[in-house]
Amino acid sequence: MEASLAPAAGTLGGSRSRRNYARRYWMFAVPAAVVVAAVILFPWIFTLVMSVFDWKVSGNIYFVGIKNFVHLFEDSRFQWAVIRTLYFTALAVIFPMILGIWAAVCFASNFKGRGLARTLFILPMMATPVAIALVWTMMFHPQLGVLNYLLSVVGLPPASWVYQADTVIPTLVMVETWQWTPLVMLIVLGGIAGLPVDPYEAAIIDGASGWQMFRFITVPMVWPFIIVAAVMRMIDALKTFDTIFVITNGGPGTSSETINMLLYQTAFGYYDLGYASAQVLVFFAIIMVISVGLLRVRRMERWQ
Questions:
Q1: Measured in Å, how far apart are the chain's first and last C-alpha atoms?
Q2: At residue 11, does pLDDT exceed 70?
Q3: Most CB contacts within 10 A, which of 169, 239, 293, 302?
Q4: Same domain, yes or no, for 113 and 235?
Q5: Tell me: the pLDDT tens digits for 198-211?
Q6: Which whole-number Å values give the CA distances from 49 to 42, 105, 274, in the listed order?
Q7: Which domain range does residue 230 map to?
Q8: Residues 132, 243 share a domain
Q9: How far apart are CA 145 and CA 268, in angstroms?
Q10: Bridge partners of 95?
Q11: Same domain, yes or no: 32 and 171
């Protein structure tokens, strides 16, 4: 009799334990879900609602449906802002990746003063973008800037830097490269530090050169780290605002006006919140497409 009641008692105790676990689970899950909904979902839902209205701060609010989105594809200023954003992002990813990988390989080798050199190399990443932008703005000054003075020392003519439409975006990319190359270096260096030494020893015995070891051993083995660094750099470059705002404010004219700058101008310059909300949603769609593509590339890779 006692033996027959034991499983039932055990089942009853297990059921009570599961109910207690579920009750404790919802006590933590519900507040977290409420916070996520309030912080993330509500702003997006409110932005979606505003995007279908003619919503100006100083005027009445009218429902216009998809008119704001149709106007986006007819607005040449927005189309050029998309092109500039993609152009800026591509350059702001390529150059830090190339220099960051090169720096990681250099810092992976043993040399005197390596610790001090690493510390100095990552200092730009520690400063705030606004402070960096202010310093570079003074350096870009046509008459008083130190960069044109250095060009004159070596016999080169002064450059226009951010004061000419043809050079403004490459110049802004130079600032981004200076600040964020250390981040790429740290990520790739972490991958190089964990590599085994056996493949390199075998390559040296076979007479491989330094470039061959880098091309056929280092790069394939740290490729997942390179992809991670590229994804992080891509996301950060797409949302760059403060550096461009401080140095050029989208100028000269609109030659450095990215989507972020246009959003700011539409919402807080023209106070057209409905049209700005439509721009936000389209920009979010562009970011999602690029992110999905990068994630697919990342998923195709395999950790060594």
A1: 59
A2: no
A3: 169
A4: yes
A5: 888 898 898 888 88
A6: 10, 50, 9
A7: 69-300
A8: yes
A9: 31
A10: none
A11: no
Range scoring the smallest mean pLDDT among 3-17, 52-66, 157-171: 3-17
Amino acid at 65: G
| Alpha-carbon dihedral sign for residues 223, 188, 169, 174 | negative
Residue 248 and residue 203 share a domain: yes
Spatial distance between the Cα atoms of 125 and 288, rounded to a whole number of angstroms: 26
Q: What is the band of 1 on the pLDDT scale with cuts at 50, 70, 90?
A: very low
* Sign of the C-alpha dihedral computed for residues 57, 62, 68 and 69 taken in this order: positive
Query: What CATH number does residue 275 fall under?
Result: 1.10.3720.10
- Structure confidence at residue 78 (pLDDT): 94
Pure H helices in 140-270 = 146-153, 168-193, 198-205, 210-213, 219-238, 242-247, 259-264
Average pLDDT over residues 218-242: 89
Residues 10 and 73 in one domain: no
What's the confidence (pLDDT) of residue 172? 95
Q: Is the peptide bond before 31 cis (omega within 30 degrees of 0)?
A: no
Helix and strand element counts for the chain (H, E): 15, 2
For residue 171, the model assigns a pLDDT of: 95
Same domain, 125 and 169: yes
Radius of gyration over alpha carbons of the chain, in Å?
Answer: 27
What is the number of domains present in the chain?
2
pLDDT of amino acid 13:
55
Summarize the confidence of residues 295-299 as an average pLDDT: 73
> What is the rounded CA–CA span in Å between residue 96 and residue 76?
30
Dist. CA 28–CA 21, nearest whole Å: 11
d(CA 282, CA 263): 11
